[in-house]
Structure formats: structure tokens, C-alpha cells
Specification:
Blueprint: H1 16-30, E1 32-33, H2 49-55, E2 57-58, H3 60-73, E3 78-85, E4 91-98, E5 107-108, E6 121-124, H4 137-141, E7 143-152
Parallel strand pairs: 1-2
Antiparallel strand pairs: 3-4, 3-7, 4-6, 5-6
Helix pairs in contact: 1-3, 2-3
């Protein structure tokens, strides 16, 4: 466990919707978005959840790693996706959460081709709260999944 769900007010009996909402609210009240400053010929730096929480800032991949780990620790299957814009000009990291609930996010019905368990997966922009989420079908169609890293879920807390 890298993130104590109780820190975000998550209870074991909360719905997936409530768990995700509480985690996004906590992360976005505690961590602010900041671009990595990548020098020529240097790779992006990925921060582990404790590092992101310590420096209280990160970019899309740092937020994705933290939120995905928090979801797993709260008992929700999660994954990190790296996607490329359909025009090929941008790359981006986001979170996938698996749930049987009807969540207010764009979704995929099957991502088994990326090694994920079968079932419905929802795309979450981790640097936004539910209230800040501006999701629509066109947004999801604007990205092509490059790779996925399954985080899974940890035994219930």
C-alpha cells in the first residue's frame, strides 16, 4: 500500500463513484499541476506516489501514477495509460479505472488487447476533480492508446 485511502476520507463500503471522487478531491487539493522541465535529450522523470505527495506537485504522469495507486489501494482495479493525440503532436498520461458502476467518464468496453482484465474501463483525467472534469465523446476520440500499465487492486483496507 502506497496511499492510505483513509487519508482521503475513503471508506471500505463507499461506492466506486464515491471513492474516486474523494481521491480526486484529495489529490487535487494537495498536489498542484506543474510541467516537467525536460532538457534536450533528457527523458521525462516519473515520480513515485510518496515523491509526488512530498513535493506537492507533478505533471500528468505523476498525477496518473499517484491516482492509480490510490485507486488500487482503495480496492479499484486501475491502470495508467500513455496516449498520443490522433494528430501525433502530443502525448499524455491518464488513469483507467474498472467499475461496474455508471461513472461520469468516457469508457472502453474491452481493453484485453492491452493485457487488462475484461470489463468496462473508464478514462480519468487525474489532475481534475469530478466538478472540474470536462469529458465528452470527442475528447476520448482525440487520443490513441500507446501502452497501458496495469496497477490492479490491493486487498481491501
Amino acid at each position: 500500500m502506497v496511499f492510505d485511502p483513509n487519508t482521503a476520507g475513503v471508506n471500505i463500503n463507499d461506492s466506486d463513484y464515491t471513492k474516486i471522487n474523494k481521491i480526486l478531491n484529495f489529490v487535487n487539493s494537495y498536489v498542484h499541476y506543474e510541467n516537467d522541465y525536460i532538457l534536450l535529450n533528457e527523458d521525462d522523470t516519473y515520480l513515485a506516489p510518496p515523491e509526488t505527495l512530498t513535493v506537492k506537485s507533478g505533471d500528468c504522469d505523476d498525477f496518473s501514477i499517484l491516482v492509480s495507486a490510490a485507486l488500487a489501494d482503495a480496492g479499484i482495479n486501475s491502470a495508467i495509460i500513455f496516449a498520443q493525440s490522433v494528430d501525433g503532436k502530443k502525448t499524455h498520461a491518464m488513469v483507467l479505472a474498472q467499475s461496474e458502476e455508471d461513472l461520469p467518464f468516457c469508457s472502453y468496453l474491452d481493453l484485453t488487447q492491452f493485457g487488462l482484465p475484461s470489463g468496462k474501463w473508464f478514462i480519468i483525467e487525474p489532475q481534475y476533480t469530478f466538478e472540474g472534469h470536462i469529458q465528452n465523446p470527442q475528447y476520448c476520440r482525440g487520443w490513441r492508446i500507446i501502452t497501458v500499465a496495469l496497477i490492479g487492486k490491493v486487498a481491501s483496507f
